[in-house]
């Protein structure tokens, strides 16, 4: 069956999936009230968790406002293997960074494409579902830098509270939770994880571990936020099950333009829905959960931000704070390895009719997994956070198919198109390829979010300032060298897997350097700098007197009453790993701070010992 046939079967099947969907809840209230106790802006990874937890209290009324529509408007969202097809759809804000000076040199206009989710569930609809909590040293570092209450000991119970671990070997682990809203399941899919990735990593000295357990350092099978073969976005996991609560209203396709502030106190919110302007008042608090790009944007539009910048844009200053500063993101590159066992998947195999039918009928098989089968963390010592992460991706290089390469597709191919075709024609269909992604975890380069204008519909200016700090190039190089070592292992040799540079044919700019020399790889890093989609820290948390902080350790905007930020933007620093689970943890903890309760007392007895 060709692609077309596969798509037809997929579409029909998806209709079946749609009809059998669990617990949809009510989509919209009949009409909005004039006031609520709590108004949450943004129904993303954090917003859906907060809406659930705050509305647990029947005495509180909650309004959740989201710019996008239902996550069910795009069927592909629920199918894990389709993760790469979700970008540039209606459920994506389709942001782009400003042209980079020292990075992204080979990408279209030197910009990096920054997908961000725009629907109930936010970016948890678009992500690759990797469940990674980060290093205990990350959180201990936050606490040391003034974020009281955010040490590893403090946050671990909140990770466990959310979780419903589905992996048999981890059922009895003290580090995992059972019965929570968020299903975490095993991500292994092809024989490569067991036969190639794990033994090769062992050969280069990295033990097999549970990266969310006692020690993060080593190689682990992926843990994925997937429930019965379907994406467990935060809307599916946390919001749908409680959407019919009487004290919770959800307003979709509602574009927030401003937080209303009176006498340094947040009193309400303005948004546009169906071309009408709405003003709704908050009796207790306004909680901003619009993510690392839009939370700083909305604060600045409301007069909270760097004074000089706001004045330039003609916005009256309410509070002079470093909003939009300290932007941090992970970057990666790609290294391909051939695989003569044919275990890696390509588009013919993963869309094979058998796989589609198996998935549609039983939600089983490779379509129900991301194919990021394994991950690993490299560190310089047991009491340091890791400096590098690897992802092992068992889906073959197919630029037209895997939108992971979306930046590359934007590449102005003016003078390389010939080379590209030549390269593609050399791909041997019988030779499969898997990909290893080396990821820089703690960039020293810091970027910013700024406003283009005072118009809320103008996308903000995103400048990650990638590779601005020379150490970031050095660390990337160091990580790449570790990956290249895998090519020398007995394991990889036995399957004929040697490192290939997928961009070799695209990078005439690096032709002048000797292949595989440091200078060659440095050139490569600077030309093909890809985001790992983990922007954080643009409304950074810190002690009350910390000049870099936007919110205090209770996530209250400094100097403004009744206003909190709860999402990835408050992270003190980007953690050692993917950012979805940490964002969910932040929302779980924030709900307790807001309600002034301790919902995880029952877990501390166990976690305090860990
Ligand atoms: C392609 C991709 C792959 C990723 N892979 C992984 C992964 O495998 N594992 C992992 O842990 N993390 C991954 N991430 C990152 C992770 O998903 C994010 O860090 C996390 O979802 C951020 O959550 P948030 O609550 O801060 O923001 P979001 O989830 O982005 O939520 C913000 C919400 O606010 C809404 N909003 C914004 N502005 C307005 C406005 N003006 N009015 C109304 N609503 C508004 C948005 O529409 C959105 O719903 C990935 C991200 C991407 C893009
Ligand atoms: C879902 O994926 C299929 C297969 O690639 C594609 O044809 C279809 O357009 C996608 N649907 C949406 C809504 O993007
Ligand atoms: C909305 O207002 C009605 C009428 O006052 C009230 O009964 C209801 O509980 C309110 N709903 C919410 C979610 O605040
Ligand atoms: C893979 O290829 C190598 C030679 O490149 C060969 O020695 C090995 O036997 C092959 N392995 C398998 C499983 O086919």
Automatic annotation (TrEMBL):
<dbReference type="GO" id="GO:0016614">
    <property type="term" value="F:oxidoreductase activity, acting on CH-OH group of donors"/>
</dbReference>
<protein>
    <recommendedName>
        <fullName>Glucose-methanol-choline oxidoreductase N-terminal domain-containing protein</fullName>
    </recommendedName>
</protein>
<keyword id="KW-0274">FAD</keyword>
<dbReference type="Pfam" id="PF00732">
    <property type="entry name" value="GMC_oxred_N"/>
</dbReference>
<keyword id="KW-0285">Flavoprotein</keyword>
<feature type="signal peptide">
    <location>
        <begin position="1"/>
        <end position="25"/>
    </location>
</feature>
<dbReference type="InterPro" id="IPR036188">
    <property type="entry name" value="FAD/NAD-bd_sf"/>
</dbReference>
<dbReference type="GO" id="GO:0050660">
    <property type="term" value="F:flavin adenine dinucleotide binding"/>
</dbReference>
<feature type="binding site">
    <location>
        <position position="256"/>
    </location>
    <ligand>
        <name>FAD</name>
    </ligand>
</feature>
<comment type="similarity">
    <text>Belongs to the GMC oxidoreductase family.</text>
</comment>
<dbReference type="InterPro" id="IPR000172">
    <property type="entry name" value="GMC_OxRdtase_N"/>
</dbReference>
<dbReference type="InterPro" id="IPR007867">
    <property type="entry name" value="GMC_OxRtase_C"/>
</dbReference>
<feature type="domain" description="Glucose-methanol-choline oxidoreductase N-terminal">
    <location>
        <begin position="291"/>
        <end position="305"/>
    </location>
</feature>
<dbReference type="InterPro" id="IPR012132">
    <property type="entry name" value="GMC_OxRdtase"/>
</dbReference>
<dbReference type="Pfam" id="PF05199">
    <property type="entry name" value="GMC_oxred_C"/>
</dbReference>
<feature type="domain" description="Glucose-methanol-choline oxidoreductase N-terminal">
    <location>
        <begin position="117"/>
        <end position="140"/>
    </location>
</feature>
<feature type="binding site">
    <location>
        <position position="123"/>
    </location>
    <ligand>
        <name>FAD</name>
    </ligand>
</feature>
<keyword id="KW-0732">Signal</keyword>
């Amino acid at each position: 069956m060709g692609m077309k046939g596969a798509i037809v079967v997929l579409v029909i099947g998806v209709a079946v999936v749609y009809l059998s969907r669990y617990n949809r809840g009510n989509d919209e209230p009949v009409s909005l009230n004039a006031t609520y106790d709590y108004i949450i802006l943004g129904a993303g990874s954090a917003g859906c968790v907060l809406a659930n937890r705050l509305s647990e209290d029947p005495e509180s009324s909650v309004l959740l406002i989201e710019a996008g529509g239902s996550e069910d408007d795009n069927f592909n969202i629920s199918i894990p293997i389709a993760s790469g097809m979700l970008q540039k759809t209606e459920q994506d804000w389709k942001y782009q960074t400003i042209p980079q000076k020292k990075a992204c040199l080979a990408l279209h206009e030197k910009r990096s494409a920054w997908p961000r989710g725009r629907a109930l569930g936010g970016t948890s609809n678009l992500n690759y579902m990797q469940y990674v909590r980060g290093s205990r040293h990350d959180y201990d570092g936050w606490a040391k830098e003034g974020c009281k209450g955010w040490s590893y000991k403090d946050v671990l119970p909140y990770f466990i509270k959310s979780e419903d671990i589905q992996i048999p070997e981890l059922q009895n682990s003290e580090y995992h939770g059972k019965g929570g809203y968020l299903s975490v399941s095993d991500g292994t899919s092809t024989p490569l994880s067991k036969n190639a990735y794990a033994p090769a990593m062992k050969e280069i000295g990295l033990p097999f571990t549970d990266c969310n357990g006692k020690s993060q350092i080593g190689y682990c099978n992926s843990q994925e936020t997937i429930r019965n073969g379907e994406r467990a976005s935060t809307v599916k996991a946390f919001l749908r099950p409680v959407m019919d609560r009487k004290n919770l209203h959800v307003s979709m396709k509602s574009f927030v333009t401003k937080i209303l502030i009176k006498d340094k106190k947040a009193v309400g919110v303005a948004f546009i829905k169906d071309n009408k302007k709405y003003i709704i008042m908050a009796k207790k608090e306004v909680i901003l959960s619009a993510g690392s790009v839009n939370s700083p944007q909305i604060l600045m539009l409301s007069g909270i931000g760097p004074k000089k910048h706001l004045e330039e844009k003609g916005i009256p200053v309410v509070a002079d704070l470093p909003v939009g500063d300290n932007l941090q993101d992970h970057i990666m590159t790609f290294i391909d390895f051939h695989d003569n066992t044919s275990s890696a998947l390509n588009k013919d195999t993963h869309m094979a009719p058998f796989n589609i039918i198996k998935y549609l009928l039983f939600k089983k098989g490779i379509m129900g997994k991301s194919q990021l089968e394994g991950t690993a963390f490299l560190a310089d010592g047991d009491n340091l956070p890791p400096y590098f992460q690897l992802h092992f991706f068992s889906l073959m290089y197919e630029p037209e198919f895997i939108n992971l390469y979306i930046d590359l597709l934007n590449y102005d191919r003016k003078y390389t198109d010939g080379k590209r075709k030549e390269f593609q024609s050399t791909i041997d269909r019988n030779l499969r390829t898997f990909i290893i992604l080396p990821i820089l975890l703690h960039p020293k380069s810091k970027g910013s979010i700024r406003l283009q204008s005072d118009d809320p519909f103008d996308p903000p200016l995103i400048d990650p300032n990638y590779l601005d700090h020379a150490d970031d190039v050095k660390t990337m190089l160091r990580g790449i060298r570790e990956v290249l070592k895998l090519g020398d292992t007995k394991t990889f040799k036995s399957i004929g897997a040697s490192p290939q540079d997928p961009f070799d044919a695209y990078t005439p700019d690096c032709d002048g350097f000797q292949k595989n020399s440091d200078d060659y790889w440095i050139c490569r890093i600077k030309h093909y700098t890809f985001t790992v989609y983990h922007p954080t820290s643009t409304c950074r948390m810190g002690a009350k007197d910390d000049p870099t902080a936007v919110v205090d350790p209770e996530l209250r905007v400094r100097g403004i009453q009744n206003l909190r930020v709860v999402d990835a933007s408050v992270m003190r620093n980007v953690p050692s790993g993917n950012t979805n689970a940490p964002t969910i943890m932040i929302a779980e903890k924030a709900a307790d701070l807001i309600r002034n309760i301790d919902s995880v007392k029952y877990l501390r007895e166990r976690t305090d010992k860990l």
